Amino acid sequence: MRRTPALALSLMMCTASYAHSQTKLNRGLQLDATGSVRIANLVGSVKVTGWKRDSVAVRGVLGKGNQFFMGGGHGGMKLFIEGADERNPAPSEIEVMVPMGAKVWVKTATAKIDVTGVTGSLDLYVVSGDISVNGNPAD
Q: pTM for the complete prediction?
């Protein structure tokens, strides 16, 4: 297949524009093995994975105009995504690694929630989306 320079340039500009509209996310904080984590991401997806560390790590991609906030201490923390347009926020995709025994609370509107390997308690809330839990949570 033969490509013209104009087509190649057009494809590169579309890719650059899409990549520019999103912000990559990579943050972390220490948390006790049985600490609490509150997560809010209204649109997109939230993947929570239990691991054998005393910390929380967050990776992902924020939608255009969205801001990420994270804070707390060793016993508990909160992390959330706030959209520039509250009525129509851009989707954000986040992956959160938590201590296996952590108590996890997730709230979304239309985001998919996927939880794996958490043995602490779970409180998962979604208005219209899918929830998937793999493992053996306490409740």
A: 0.83
